[in-house]
Each structure stands twice: as C-alpha cells, then as structure tokens.
Amino acid sequence: MKWENFSKLESYKKLAGAGRVDVKAELSGENGAERVKNYQVPMASGMVYSYAAKAVDDGLIDILQELADEAQLQEKYEALYNGEVINTGEKRLVLHQLTRGQLGQDVIADGENKREFYAEQQSRADAFARKIHKGEIVNENGEKFTTAVQVGIGGSDLGPRALYLSLESWAKVNDTLKMEAKFISNVDPDDASAVLSGIDLAHALFVLVSKSGTTLETLTNETFCKDALKKAGLDPSCHMVAVTSATSPLANNPDYLDSFYIDDYIGGRYSAMSAVGGVILALAFGPEVFARIQAGAADADKAATEKDIRKNAAMLDALIGVYERNFLGYGVTAVLPYSQALSRFPAHLQQLDMESNGKSVNRFGEPVDYKTGPVIFGEPGTNGQHSFYQLLHQGTDIVPLQFVGFRKSQMENDVLIEDSTSQQKLCANVAAQIVAFACGKDDDNRNKYFAGGRPSSIIVGDQLTPEALGTLLAHFENKVMFQGFVWNVNSFDQEGVQLGKVLAKRVLAGDTDGALAEYSKLLDI
Amino acid sequence: MKWENFSKLESYKKLAGAGRVDVKAELSGENGAERVKNYQVPMASGMVYSYAAKAVDDGLIDILQELADEAQLQEKYEALYNGEVINTGEKRLVLHQLTRGQLGQDVIADGENKREFYAEQQSRADAFARKIHKGEIVNENGEKFTTAVQVGIGGSDLGPRALYLSLESWAKVNDTLKMEAKFISNVDPDDASAVLSGIDLAHALFVLVSKSGTTLETLTNETFCKDALKKAGLDPSCHMVAVTSATSPLANNPDYLDSFYIDDYIGGRYSAMSAVGGVILALAFGPEVFARIQAGAADADKAATEKDIRKNAAMLDALIGVYERNFLGYGVTAVLPYSQALSRFPAHLQQLDMESNGKSVNRFGEPVDYKTGPVIFGEPGTNGQHSFYQLLHQGTDIVPLQFVGFRKSQMENDVLIEDSTSQQKLCANVAAQIVAFACGKDDDNRNKYFAGGRPSSIIVGDQLTPEALGTLLAHFENKVMFQGFVWNVNSFDQEGVQLGKVLAKRVLAGDTDGALAEYSKLLDI
Fold first, then answer.
1. At the topology level of CATH, where does B96-293 sit?
2. Does A376 touch chain B (CB under 8 A)?
3. Is B126 an interface residue toward A (CB < 8 Å)?
C-alpha cells in the first residue's frame, strides 16, 4: 500500500487539467430531469445520495474513480478495519467500525478479539440499562431512576447528544423513551448549574464519560454533580456510572455503580457507537433502539467497501468534496438537514470533519502543499433559509451545500394549510433550494439576480428512524476517512488541541509573562 | 454624503500597499504585555474590546482611520439614525436604534414620531406582561399563564431566542424569571409537535411574530398551536397575542388577546429590541430586565458615534474585519463566547452578519469587485476546544476569531478543584487560546508544531448581565452596519431569500418541470 501526497498523484494532475462543469447549464432545462434520475447512489437503510446538483459530469466522475483507485481508498479502508496501525502518529489501530459489526477479519489486539470486546461492553451496558428500566437497580431510597445525565465533552458529548436529540421525539411517539437524557459538557460552571437545577436529582443517573479519566472539564463537572447530590442528601456512588478505558482512574472505582470500557482504538469523535454513546442511548431509548442505530451504521460501513464510486455514496461524496476543495477552491461546506430533530447533527459533523482533517501535515509529519479539511457549519432548514441563506445565494463566495431530507416526519402529526401539509412544505422547500442554488435566476435588476452555479448534494430518506440515523452517522465518518486518505493526513489524531491546554495550565499555575500575563489580568484570573 | 465602492477609495489603495503585520512577532515576548494594555477600547456596560492579537499596528490603524473618514462611516450612521432612507432597495428608513433610545433628531415618518411609536409599543407590552404576571389577564379558567411560546422564524426567532437563553439562568438566580419561554420556528411539523407535547397547554401564552403577517412557517405553526389548543378543549383566542405591523392581517384581529406593532423600518435581524423581542422577554423576565437590555444597547449605540476608531469598538472591529476579509483573504469568522449562556448567540450573529452583508451588488445594484461579508459560525468555549479548534490551530486556512469572555459566572455557583474554580479554568482557557493562536509553538515534530499568526479579538465583561447582553447585541449590529457602509452594500434588504420561496410555491402547486419535478418526486411531494 502506498501513502502518497495527493499532489503527487497522476489523477491530481488530471483533475487540475480537466474542464470545469457548468452545473447551472447541466441542471437547467429538460435534461435536468434525466440528470437527477441518473446521478443517484443507493445507500443503506433505503436512503439515497443525490449529486445531480454538483459541478461534475461523467468524465469528471471517471477521473475521480481513477483517484479512488490510485489513492487506494478501498485498500486503505480494508487495512483500517482489519486492524492495521492507521493512526500512525499515536501508533494506534482505528476500530470504530468494529463497535457495530465485523467487516473483515478478526482483529486481535491487547490479547483480545476487539469485536468481542466492544460487543461485550455494549451487552453489559444493555443489561445495566434493562435493570435500570425494570427498577432492579434503584437509588438509595429504592426508587427508579428517571433521568440520565451524560457528563462529557467533545466526542463524549456532541455525537451522543446529536443522536439523542435526533430520536427523542421519535422515541416518544414510538413509546420507547425510557428515560430523559441531559448533557453537561462546558467547564463554564453555569452549564452544570443550569442542568442540575432543572432535574430531579434524587432520580438522576449520571454517566461520566472520559476515555483517559483525566479530562479537565469532565472531572470538574463530576465534582459539581457530586456536590449537588451530597447537598441534596444523596449518595453520589449510587448515582454514577463511568465510561472510560480499563486503565483509567475511573475504572473499577467504588465511586461508581458500574464502569463500561472503551479503548485507545476508538477516537472521541468516532465513538458514538461505542459505550460512549451506547450507555446513555440504551438508557434513554432501550438497547433495542441502540442496536438498530448500530445496524444502520454497520450497513453503511459495508456499503462503503464498494470499489465503484458510482455505487459508494460515502466515497463519491468524499471525492466530490476533495475536488471542490482543491480545484474549485471552496473553503467551507454547509450541512443543512431539513429535519428539526437533526438540530445538533451539524455540530457533531463540525467536530468529526474539522478535527479529523484540519491538518497541515501529512501522516508522516511533512507539510502538505494543498488545502485539507474545510470549515463545516450548519443549521436545520427551513430555519437557515430565514437566516444565512442570503449569503449562500448571493454572497461573493461559493459554499457547497450538503442537504439531508426525509419524506415523512417523525411524529406524523401535521396540519393541512393551503392544500399541503407542513411536511410537504418542508420537502418542497429543500427541493426548491437545490434548484435555486444551482440554476439561479436572471433578472435585469441585479439586486434580484441569482447567478446560480452553487453546488449541492442531498441525502434523502423515508423517515429519520434509528437505522437511518446510524447510516447517516457512518456515511459522514466514512466520507471524512476517505478524504483523509486522499489528503494523506492522519484523520485520527488531534495534536492541535494540546497547546491551548498547556498554556491554560500555566495561567492557572500563575506561571505567565508577556501577553499571557496581561490577558490573565484582563480576565481577572 | 458619498456612497462609493470600497475599491474606489484612496484608503483602499493604501491598505493594499501597506506592509503586513506579523502578529506572532508583535505579541510574543515582553512587548506583548504592553501591546495587550494599549490595544483596548472601552465599551458600554464596562466592557472592553481587546484587539492586541489582531494583525494590525499603529500605522495600519491610522489607515483604517482614514478609511473610516473617507467612507464617512460616522456621517452615514448619523444619517441612518436621523431617518434617511438608507435601505435604498426597499426605500425604507432603518430605525432599529430608535427602539432603545433617541440618538439624534426626532424621526417623523408615517405621520408619527418613530421613537414615541416604538416606546409606546414597548410600554403596552410591559403593561400586558405585568397583567399576565399579576394574574389580571388569565386563561379561560381564570388561571395564571406560566409559559410563553414564541412562534416566529429568522429574526423573529434567533435574536429573541439567543437573548432568552443568555439570561434564563441569570434570571433564575436573580429571582426574576417570571415565565419560562419556548420557541417554535421550523415548518418541520416535528418542531411544533415536540414543543407542544412538552408544555402545559392550559397555561401557555403564544406570541405569534410575523411583520408581514404572511410568513409561511409562522402561519403554519400558528394553526398547529391552535389545533393543539382546541384538541385540549381550550379557546385559542384566549392564548395568543400577535406582534406584527399595523397593516397586517394579524393586526387588530379578534383571534388574539392583543397585538403589538412594529413597522417596516425594523429589519427582522435587527428587531430583537423591538416588540419582536420585547413582548416575549418582558413576559419571561419582566419589563425591568428588558429595559436594562435596551439600556445596554442604547449605550453601545452612543459609543458607536465616536469618530476616533481607537475609541469606537464597533467601528474598529468592523474595519479590522474588512481588512482581514479584503487584504488578508480570510473568508470565515468564528464567534467563540466563553459562556454557555451565549450558546445560541453565534446563530443570531450568523443571521445578522451573513444576511446583511452576504451581497454581490452595491447599494445601487451594481456588481462589486471585492469580497463582502464572510461566513460566520461558532459554538461556546470550552466546548469548541474539544471539537473544531484542531482546524483553527493547524488547518490550512486561517480563520479570524472573535472571543467573548466574562470574569464572573452568572449563577456564581462553583467548585474548587486543584486550587481553581471552574470559572477560573474557563477564563484561563480563553486567555491561553488567544496566545496559542497568535504565537504558536515551535516543535521539531511538525505534527506538534503550531505556526501561530492566527488573529483574534476578545470582548471582556465582568458578568453577562442584561446591560452587558444589550451592549454585546448592539456592538455586533453596529459592526455589521459599518462594514456594510465600507462595502457600499445595502445591509438591510435580503433579496437572496426570494427565489427559494417562489420555487417552493411552484413545487406545492405542482407547477414543475425538469430537475425541479424530479427532485419533487424524489422527496415524494
């Protein structure tokens, strides 16, 4: 297997020299219909990835296929899930796909079968959740727990939180919301104070999540929660479980009711399907629902093994994104789910993408001579239409768009106004936006003129079910992974977060001079 | 007064030719402390704008001052608040500053004194809120209302929601949370369903906000709320008030308990201090707290009249932003409040900034030959540190950062761990990040190398009080306004949102062909 910089590849030169595609011309007029029909890739869970509104054509897709082959995307993915040390900087395997299925050969590490290890932890979490739901594990007064509170930050917060919010309403109407979940993440004391003041502490179960067991924010917030429990006359050790690595100070600790384990082969931002998300989501929705999310993700992982990019949505999405970044010069991607339930999904993708591929060195620590990961942001539609879409339509920069839409709502409670339901209005809006962005509109009044040529893709599903959610999550994980392979970066470390931590410690220790001392004064530390 | 394109100005050429400033060199070492002390501007409400970590020096600030003078920023602001037709495309005055104070001369329009009109509407809203709080206006069963639900989208949602969340915890500990507030915005039926299923309908008061009275999402959600009330055996007309223009179908309508008015001179994204935010916030926090937010904003408006940019935080912030956008080539700005209460403030600024200045034509409808408004995104710190900061520190693009921090927490409930409180840790982190971004760190291991040179500013306040919040809101409104003046765009219209609306109507009417028809099929409309 060859790990080469993107700019050294033959396909890089071909892409640089290839003619640009005018998406406005391609999608406008009657040919547009054929294009929409043809430029679709089936995904797992009955979803579909549509790229008709991207600035690509068959010739360009052929070069992207050459790139996929030349960069050995499939081989690298295979090596990853078969247990090669893909996270070279930290000398770690990258096994998050194994949390939800067995893709390739058995991976044995640290003397154990890793798929079995992850499955066993989830099975323990499931059994624990069932006992909580049945009232077999109760608080110090023999009463059932009603609320689960996740205490974690970054990957221990954003993914699990996004998934919880994605299915909270769905679980209510499907009668499978077992416990309400809350989240505490920020070291800002107002975060913990606000959450703790809004819950029934006596019936709250805290899930403390830190792989290392040393995360500043999480340990601080743990103390916050313990203090609140003690002040309420409760015993913290009856109200807490830990999700951590087997070697952390939180493991096998009498301070907790139980501990569930992860390991170094699951990066924080890729950990939503491990015990990091598995404990809180099994508690909230029940183990069966969490298993359905995992199944949707596992199916997406399988679909991503396809070599033909016209049949592999994650890989095609990745390659089009690379093309837009490196040859069309677009530095930002907006993620726009037309689903209120996905309100925090863009915040998860923001971490997933920007922390994975926001790098300036390749996997060997050498500077790269091309752009890597873009800025990711987004809000749900139609809300965004009444906010930042103005710039997306008529601003001076082009921002590629990643839409997500579902034919049915989650709660299927709706109203008919002017002959259409709210759900139909929602879907009509996303269809309209795709065409508006790509095709624009001529107008002699330049103020009302839309240049068009603003590319987008859309992932369409029938309904945001647990399976669809798992597929969506894994799609983006795999997209980011493939892009990292093309850019030849290590998508699984995050050295860029270290310097701030070191300097913050110096501030707290009073070990500052120059600007740092003066900023500390300004903030009265 | 002269409205000229930025690129025609003498100061534009000077900025293009001026030497670039190495912020890493300037801020590193012992000189850094002096720089932090000197590069500060006092703001209203005792806050301060610090720009020591921006890539500017005294010489460059002098040219930015020339730009401010040449572009007549002060004169244009004065013309705006004195009632000139600044929103030329829509032929409207721009009077949002008048909602919170009288800055210049009386503005008479539509036969009335506009300051008096806005003040009267707020005074009516205040009286209404007091009656609700005292139980003088009650539901059909003679019971007090306990929850206020804002139904609105875009500017009728993001600003009021951000402000409510900013002060919810503060109001709780200061014993002035009169009613809990909820928000319904998205046309996605799951949004209204989720909110309505989570509240006590019998004691809920709905605030329906639409200036035109014709906003698709808001009217749809109104029906949703009415249906839910009727199903619960309640009378919708006893549970709703409207905030709208005097000529809208919602005005003086027996369907509502009362109506409060705005007019065409308050753009949606600038409307948080009008009745759009004033009704819901007076209900939630009481009229006195809302008056304090307004006072903080009015003080910031006054501070923005200063001609010397070294004493005018909003103007200096605007000019540095323009310099970064047009001469350093940065296309994105991240807003990073180190305050969990400001969790949705970046979403408000995203609309404010991107909808105002995301334009490609000048105020006369002629294409401009320079970049205008950047993409804005952000999340609270320290959360972001564990998410997308990797890219900000080590990515291939530089993203200017706008930090906000407070010396004290809102709830002042804290824990001491390793000799520091959570609040101290929060403040230490933001101080550390500023220096880490600007100064970087050398390392032979390129993976652990930080290039630095990543510019930021910080707004520091003592505590996030109502006054501080008002100041913060107005600071950004005025910053965006000044940038619009420099770019010579109309920051007060939003023609870019129209095309999507038109096409969505065609989809719902079945009037589609080509790509639009096929996307409609894909989404099963």
1. Rossmann fold (3.40.50)
2. yes
3. no
